[in-house]
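Section 5.1 Outputs to date
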Amino acid sequence: MMKLRIHCVFLLSLFIITGCSSKTQKTGSNVNVQSVPETLDMENEGFHFKPMLDSYVPKKKSYNFYLTYKSAHPWWDAVALGIEDAVKQYENNDVFITYDYLAPEKMSAYDQIERIKNAASKKTYDVIGVDVADIAIVTPVINKLIDRGQKVMTFSSSDSGKENGCKRIAYVGNTHNYEDGKLLAECLCEKLKYKGKIAMLVGNHGAPCHEDRAQGAKEIFAKYPDIELVDLQYDEDLEEKAFDFAKEFLQKYPDLNGIICCNMSNSVGAGRAVKEAGKSGQIVITGMDHDKRALEYLRDGVIYALALQDCYAMGFDTITTAVKIADGLLPGTDYPEKTEENTVLFFQKDADWLLRSLYGRID
């Protein structure tokens, strides 16, 4: 696992921010996608909220979990903070949890299925958690493991649910990636006064979160006759590929007005390309998540808006849900089949606070 470098205070504070927000974006049913109100006092000590374990009493004194996510990437470091905090809170109650939290350097659904099959073969893990790399490839393997008696859940950014024929027990994470894509696209269109040429960077083919955001964005673009989506490229969630594609966009479309980014890496790559081309503020960029460079681009006006997911809550709730699954509880009154976490939209005015909260200083 990569070294953790995100400050807990910000990720904890998202609980309070989203609870106080007066600008909830109702872009779909049962969604929790929000933006920060203009009057929010980001320095208020009340934001230092710490999630606590609920009243459920675990049936055992020790648990062992296997958690695998898409790729080694700083985005999942923030999820790991929530995981570790939940583990420490259980330890304070004399419940001891060990876990493996592993991923390949580059996303591969085939690597993922080998990992989860190997984990299941050891018969030492109470629950296997999967951040699904590709629904079509991974779902059949999850189903086979379930049929053999292995308890499997999904977590983080990508689910494969009943609608996909998946037998996984529960999901904890972003349940509204489609709506996040719509939110970013609507924000971009509004900034462009609903007229202009836009290019899109998606991420990985088959990754549910990336594909869903792209589809949500396309739905919004289709609403406006003077908005044209001129190009779309998959950058494999790699910053350098996103940078190269964004440079190509700028060369191929000299009248390009905006770029929409569907993951954290391409937000950085697109911002870098636009800045190096001397077009900061001329090309409107909307993107995802909390990379330090992306937040600096937000502060400097290179990126117009970023939607940040509550990664900390994803990690914390993954552990509490896994304990209940390990104890044989099915979704219902004790925990939902899908635990939905928040996404918050931030703008330039929020960037200094975000940088201080996540990284402790502003360069």
